[in-house]
Amino acid sequence: MSKHRIKSVALEDDYADDYYEDDEDQSGYVEEDGMTAEDQERLRVATVQARNTLGQGFTSITDKEIQDALWHYYYDISKSVSYLKNKHTPSQSKQDKTRPAKTGSQLAVHHQAVKEPNIHHLLPSTAKDFFWDSPWLNIPFHRQAEIRIEPVFPRLGLLGGSSTGEGKMSKIAALAAKRRLKEKENEKQRGAATHTSGLPEDTASGLSKLRIATSHTLYPHKEHPLRSRHDLQSASRIDQTQETPPKGDALPPSRQQGKDKRTEDNHQLNGSQSGANVADMRAKPSMFARTLMISCDTALPLSSRPPTLLPEPVISSFDFLKPSPDDIVLKAQNFKGSKTSTSSKQQKPAKAKESITNSMENLSVVEPETIKSKNLDVLAEYKKVERKNAANFVVIGHVDSGKSTLMGRLLFDLKAIDERTMQNYKEEAEKMGRGSFAFAWVLDQGTEERARGVTIDIATHKFQTERTSFTILDAPGHRDFVPNMIGGASQADFAVLVIDASPSAFEAGLRGQTKEHALLVRSMGLAKIVVAVNKMDRTDWSKERFQDIKQQMLAFLTTAGFKSENISFVPCSGLQGDNILTRSRAPQAAWYNGPTLVEELDTPEPVNHALEKPLRMTLDDTFHDSVQNPFSVSGRIEAGSLQVGDQIVVMPSGIKAFIRSIRVDDEPSDWAVAGQNVILSLSITEADFDQINIGNMLCNPAFPVENVSSFTAKVLAFDHLMPMPLDVHKGRLHIPGRISRLAAVLNKVDDSVVKKKPQVVHPGSIARIVVELDEPAPIEAGRIILRANGETVAAGHLE
Amino acid sequence: MRLVKRHIEPDGSGSVTLYPEEPEDMWHAHNLIRPTDLLTAPAIRRVTSESASTGSTSSHRVHVNLTIRVKSLDFDPQAGQLHVSGRVARENKHTKIGQHHTLDLELNRNFTLTKEVEGKDGEQGWDSVAKEQLEEATNPQKKAEIVAVVMEEGLANICFVTQYQTLLRQKVAMKVNRKRDGAGRSAKHDKGVGKFFKTVLDTLLRQVEGLIEQTEEAKTIPILLASPGFTAAGFLRYASERAFATGEKLLQSLVKRKAFVVVHSSAGHLYSLNEVLKSPEVRVKLKDTKYARETRLMNEFFEMLRKDDGRAWYGPKEVEAAVEEGAVGRGGGKLIITNSLFRNQDVATRRRWVRLVDRVRKESGGDVRILSSDHESGKRLEGLGGIAAILTYPIVDLGDPEEEQVAVVNGNDPP
Q: Residue limits of the eRF1/Pelota-like N-terminal domain (chain B) (predicted)?
């Protein structure tokens, strides 16, 4: 037994040191509470329900207590209510619970009055309170102490971490909580008392060091079942040692003797030589046990414990939201004493999850690596930093309208591509007999793409202007690659539509993908569109041609649903570089004095992203990045935020993983928020990683997307709809399915049903349809595109 | 399938003895055999005997010819196996009437199918549809087969298209890294594509090898490579290069006789096969096959539905109403129905559809096309409720929309 305890102490010290350091780092975040908006709302609703369920008889229960209970029972109202009822039924015990509010001095007076005879006992009055109705209360003190200590310690030592022993745990927790409360009281006194303690200098410093260590391990023990026993032992012990001197001032002289005794113990522990009676104490064989016993005595006033803390250790064992502990925050909250109990509770579950996850990871054989979450409040971090506007835009248009060349030119002019690389591209392009494709090669990196001179997949590239940092998503124009274009457009904030102005090419494009792309980006919710009328040099900068195209496109785009103020036109030439970064120098182009393409892009329009919502991110790509980060995924965060150390779940497979590192726009970062393009390195097994595919959804494990195998959608038909097989596109997700039922044709204005069960839905009408998927996929509310036989047949959103 | 003996009375009762020769014959048997029919086939049954004196039991297997009354069928299209379960209808030395048995029909073994009229469920015997199916099954016409690989980057569906079925033999799904910006990043993509092609080609060759083992004809079948973009072309290039680089005989012979045909499809999913079969390259090869006819018919129907001129209707209730009006008649009236409706467990439902077919044929003089539900076109038809009709004259509105709703939901229920 004693051997075991010694071991515990050592362990505890290690922990203590660790967390001490952490505290220094993180003191800035101490005040953040770990509750999300959803949680708060849920808590509020549940509180009202619980209050109703409790009824009139329990009006004395405070909201805080209810909320605490709810939190620990994971919003299980019936459990919480029964718990509260149990706690509050005897009105006497209710009174006890209110006692924590009392100040130390009040307590002291109370002690005197009640427990005068038990001179040796430490704070006996609270014990009496707690056991006020126990028949064995009058047993002599020394026996009382014996009885209690024996059950407490073995239990703490052996079962402290068990998540199953609910009954036992609650007793331990009761002790722990009570002890903590007592310490709180002591802390209040400590401030003044430390000056008067009269300890030698070196002892004081040793103590203060210890005290800090304690402070980290003391409070979290509730959430940290494995460690809690060490905490309990050492914390109570050490705190005592520090608290005793100050207590001496506050307590009546009748208890001075007990105090002295503990002071001695204290000195023993710290290895300091202060008292004359140290020698006797040392002579006793079971010094350690004795110390512990006394500390347990100190902990006895159970009644002062806030009742709601009881079930914590049990509950906290179940969730694994965040991986690493941050006990400091909690400690600091308690330290300040300014936090309400509710808010401190809000912190706890998250931390509990972390601590357990940590211990689980330590146990794991396969993945010895532990990822420490810095537990940042990502949103606060995000707001803290002043940054440029960030925007993604997708470049769309008919095949061979010069999208890639235009963007290559833009990047070159903005010096995002250096001269030498460009020279290389030029030489290679010449060699392949495709000299005019040199600029396109900036984005068309694929072998096949270069050989054929056609963009196949989305290419991304970044550049910065003075005000904004942009990400280009260069979409393929070929009709076969519209799925890729949809994937790219789903990540964009606005679109650049490139039109080939050369004779008859515009007309061909309009029939082809110019129209389809414009419709697609509109149905994906992009509001702003910049129309770059490209290849103006081929028309000899004809103003008439430009105006003609502008008029036709304006008419088309407005009918497609773009507002005219969100449409702008720029005549330019990608190959020559006119009106892209700099105004055209060609004399024929002098008639145009509007903004250049870059100026047009750079009209800042900050986009709001759903930062507060649960994490959602559709995977763009999965790849082996490097030896250090073998399992990487990339994409744009659609909603929510994440940070290193977070656990995530990938749907539809339900595979869980931790985030090892984050790169935002190719810069390492500790966190990322919605709207940012990220590459995440995951901590995951190879086998699991193989099951993660492009188009999968990365979510917060607490709020995962559900897999659905069929859904109802309200769509605008671009083609005839009938029960038929088709492709369902949602961003990068692209899966086969079929229309199983045409539910109704709807009125365009008020959505009223025009015709039930139509045989066929005609182009241009709005219909409610039921789509069945071949296999379940993570689709939740949002915009979808339906394609069949290589054509977009409908677009709409889920109902 | 060879017809060994045919003995059908004018009233529709009678029996036929058939000799299945190849896996697809099992598919025909699956359509011919219906619940409540009598099926006689060779079987192996384990017989347990108890010795009278000691009470100890011993069991041994016996080869018997068993006759069962069919209760249910289980068809495995991939393996071409048909399991028919039911209860023994004729007693013999080893079995008693009423004992359960599952017959596994085997290739190259005769089986006899007996259909009765006025069975206890009012069975129709060899009705017009069954007779037609029997004709089809015993038609010795050479069947056309093609292998099609519908693919896109990272996904390939290898299927066999026969007269009556589209069999998805294998699906290959692999992760192919996307191109990324930065120097040399596209190398990963190229490597991924190469790996993908290798896997697909390996799988394809294995499947073709198996096919050749089954029938010698398979040595001349074409292999269609369909994909959006350039994937199929890239795959063909890879296959040719590999044929020259390595000594794989099968691959070399395929390349030599130009078995690979590249066609366009809009996606790599299986249903894109329908586009593949529309392509001129395929039409030439499959000109007069049942499959090509079916596909053409469905395309025609969908085209009319698009026009919405009131001549194309689908759904059980609507089509029945149209037939009732006599709109599916001479001069272009066509009833399109999938054969899965005739496989229904319920006799009355089956009778309902057989009557509809007879009525169109005999009374209205319209055309009836029974589509294989195992084909792409049949699947499209099943999406429409399994039944559709092209009318001789337009009808603007058929039936009450409320009723239609019920009809579609309970499409297969008795009337």
A: 1-139
Topology (CATH) of B290-409: 60s Ribosomal Protein L30; Chain: A; (3.30.1330)
- Averaged pLDDT, A502-509: 84
> In chain B, which residues have their Cβ closer than 8 Å to the Cβ of A620?
178
Task: Sort A127 into a burial class: Cβ within 10 Å, 0-12 / 13-18 / 19+.
Answer: buried
- Burial (CB < 10 A; 0-12, 13-18, 19+), residue A213, is buried
C-alpha pair distances (Å), A199 with each of A164, A246, A264, B92, B355: 44, 11, 12, 107, 107
Report the topology of domain A707-798.
Elongation Factor Tu (Ef-tu); domain 3 (2.40.30)
Q: Judge whether A616-699 and A707-798 match in fold.
A: yes
Asked if A790's CB is within 8 angstroms of B267's CB, the reply is yes
Query: What DSSP character marks residue A706?
Result: P
Say which residue, A297 or B344, is predicted with more confidence.
Answer: B344
In chain B, the largest separation of any two C-alpha atoms, in whole Å, equals 88
Task: Show residues of chain B in contact with A757, CB under 8 Å.
Answer: 401, 404-405, 408
User: Do A394 and A495 form a contact (C-beta atoms < 8 A)?
Assistant: yes
Average pLDDT over residues B335-343: 86
* Distance to chain B for A694, nearest Cα, Å: 8
Interface contact B271-A483, CB threshold 8 A: no
Residue B40: the pLDDT is 92
Instruction: Kindly identify which residue of chain B lies nearest to residue A458, measuring between CA atoms.
Output: B179
Cis peptide preceding A652, ω within 30 of 0: yes
Contact A571, A501 (CB under 8 A): yes
User: Among the listed ranges A615-619, A698-702, B21-25, which one has the minimum average pLDDT value?
Assistant: B21-25
CA distance B184 to chain A (A): 8
For residues A742 and A761, is the Cβ–Cβ distance under 8 A? yes
Residue closest to A104 by CA, chosen among A123, A120, A127: A123
What the block records as the tokens of A407 is 């963007």
ipTM of predicted assembly, 2 dp: 0.79
**Residue B50, CB half-sphere, CA atoms under 13 Å: how many?**
3
